[in-house]
Each structure stands twice: as C-alpha cells, then as structure tokens.
Amino acid sequence: MHYQRLPKGHFALSVVYLITGASIAASMVFSLLLFLSLEQGLLMKLMFGGLALVFEVGKFYIWYEMGERVSRRDSIGAAKALCFYAVLAGLSIAGSVGGINAATNTLMESDAAKAAEVQSYTDKIVGLEREIEINEQAAQAYIDMKRIANGMTAMLARNAELRARQDELRRERDQVAITSQSSLMGLMTSLADGLGWPLSRVQFGIVAALSILLDFFAAFFIALLGDEIRFRRSQKKQALPATAEADSEQETAEPLLPVRPDYYHEVVNKLRTGELRCAKGAVSRMLEKPLEEVEDIFHWLLQDGVVYRKPNRHFALSQKTDQS
C-alpha cells in the first residue's frame, strides 16, 4: 500500500526546532568550557571561545549541506562534506569530552572538599570524646581519693560542656553530609563499585558517551530538518505548474506550461529507440538530475502522448510511439 507523505505540522516542527537548538547549544557550551579553560587572559578566552563557536556552527551546517548534496546525487561532493564533518565532529567531541570532564572535575573537587569538612567535624568530635574519657578517669581518681567535693564537680561540669559541644558538632556535620555528594558523583561511584573500575575510568566513559551521544543527537535532528525543508521545496515546485495551468485556463483555452529544456528531445528519442528505460530513476541517472526535475519531464511526456501511466502507476511507451 502506497502512503503519501505529508508535511510535518507546526507542533512537530516546533518540537524538532526546540530539540535541535537545545542540542546545538549544549554542544557549544561544553566545547566552550574546554576552550575557555585553556587560557586565563580575557583576549585569549574570546579568541578560543569564538573558535569553538565557529567549529560548532560550521560542523552542523556541513551536515545539512551533505544532505543537500546527497539529494542532488552529488556523491563526490557528499563524500567531501562527510570527511570535513568527521574532522570537525572529532574536534567537537574532543572539546565536549574536555568540557564535561572539567565540569565533573569541579564537582568532584567540591565533593572532596565537603568530605574533608565532614571528616574534620568527625575528628573534632573524636578529640572531645578523648577529653571526656580523660576527665572521667580523673573524676574516678578523685572518687578513689575521697576528694569528690574538691575536683569531681568541676570535672562533671566540664564533661557536660564537652558533650554539648559534641552534639553541636554532630548537627553541623550532619548538615554538611546531607549535601556532601552530588548525584553525578554518586552515580560514578556506584558504577565504579559495580564494574570494579577506577573512578577516573568511569568518569571518562560517562563523559565520552555523553559527548558522542549529544553530537549525533543534534546531527540526526539537523538531517531531519534538512529533509523536511527539501520535501517542502519539492512540493512547492510541483505546485507551481498546476497553479500556472489553472491561471492560464482562465485567460486562454490552452494551458501555459514551462518551456521544455533542450535535453527533452534527447530523452524522447532514446525512449523511442529503446536506449533508455521508461522509468524516472533511469532518466534521472542519465541526465544526472534530481527526481524533482524528472517529474516535470514525465509531465511533458504525458502531455505529448509519448508515454502513458499504467494501473500500477508505472510509465510505459504509448502504442503510437512504439509503432513510429
């Protein structure tokens, strides 16, 4: 069963544009994170940042241009565009890996600082616990010497203060511990424990996978937009002859059609002699022209009675043409 393709609606196009823009923006941001970290000076930051943006915009436009050349059956041009895209994509992915890696390093450093802060609270609590134990030992000595009134009261008061300080430190430590580890750091730690890998290897694997996925995600939606633009362009081109014919019918009895190109008669002669198969693909390959232009040629062939359309919608030479 043949299904006729229709243009995408406004909602679908809006979603595609939104996803494409977000993907490109994210790729640019991660590349900028790397390039901007290479140099501390403002001028060099601007230069490297501009270089990153040029690479990113150029890379995605080259992907769109490759689709244009494929649709024109320009295989050599498409191969050149693909090679150029591969070079820029490699640079972009490397930049994204470095940028995400720099961001995760910042998170890991922050987590390490918070872990050290938590450990410092624990050390203080342990130190106070030792002092409490010493005071209790001293109090026990006062009890043994029956000098409770002279020193034990002060020891008990000091221990009460130390335990209150311990409780305060525990509350502060718990407050820091609640936000001590980011979700990304927790994920990497869990993966490292589960896979038995070093944390650095897990970190690189995650950022590399994210970078590659982000790049190909954006490329897919750019290709989707390019295909939709080409489809709408071909629809408009096919509608132009019909519109011109409808307008001319109001003015004259004969329909107004575009002027046939010089190679039209060559196509007719080759069809009649059997040198050319009566199919759009064969005509397209012979003329090295896209199928959109071949549609016009077959319209003229039908108009001139050179071919007719069979019930299966394929074309065949008319009997009159075969006899001639």
Word description of this protein:
Helix 3 runs antiparallel to helix 6. Strands 1-2 form a two-stranded antiparallel ribbon. It is mainly alpha-helical. It has helices spanning about 10-35, 40-70, 75-145, 150-180, 185-195, 200-250, 265-275, 280-285, 290-305, 320-324; strands at about 305-310, 315.
Shape: rod-shaped
Strand order across the largest sheet: 1-2
Largest sheet, if any?
2 strands, antiparallel
pLDDT averaged over residues:
76
Termini separation: 36 Å
The gyration radius over C-alpha positions equals 38 Å
Helix content: over 70%
Total strand segments: 2
Low-confidence stretches: 251-256
Order of helices and strands: HHHHHHHHHEEH
The number of helices is: 10
Strand fraction equals under 5%
Structural class: mainly alpha
Quick gist of this model?
By secondary structure, this protein is mainly α. Helix content is about 80%, strand content about 0%.
List the helices and strands and how they pair.
Elements: H1 10-37, H2 42-71, H3 75-144, H4 148-178, H5 183-195, H6 199-251, H7 263-273, H8 280-287, H9 291-303, E1 307-309, E2 315-317, H10 319-323
Antiparallel strand pairs: 1-2
Features:
324 residues
